[in-house]
């Protein structure tokens, strides 16, 4: 399978990605726990059917020490006992924030209140921003049909 175009080799795409990557760096450097960030990226990528991002973030999470059991259960997090209450709250907001068309009104007050019990205001800003950024990456890669499977941890710096 080949991508529709060489997005990563295009000069205009490089300008766009420079800004998306800058936003991602701000979130990455926030106090939102790194493990939670990877779980959010994986779950949104699964929902959006982005094989490229799912491949990348499961490999990055493994490289950072995440367990295979937890990675195997991200898609079934509601039934899994391996996630903290804070991670579960972040995953719920991720799902509702990614499936906007499926949930009239977006993220429910209940899901938001639950997340607010576990994260401070800066972490909530980071969570919202991360959901927006990973959805942007997902859409770029899905629309371009970016092939998955060859990503190596750290290949993008």
Description:
The protein has helices at 11-28, 34-47, 51-63, 68-72, 85-98, 109-118, 121-143. The model has no long low-confidence stretch (mean pLDDT 95). The two termini are 25 Å apart. 62% of the residues lie in helices and 0% in strands. It is mainly α and 157 residues long. The protein is globular. It has one domain: AhpD-like, CATH 1.20.1290. The protein has seven helices and no strands.
Essential attributes:
157 residues, 7 helices, CMD-like, AhpD_core, AhpD-like
Describe the structure concisely for a colleague:
This protein has 157 residues and is mostly helical.
Alpha-carbon Rg, integer: 15 Å
What's the order of the H and E elements?
HHHHHHH
Low-confidence stretches: none
Oligomeric state, counting identical vs distinct chains: single chain
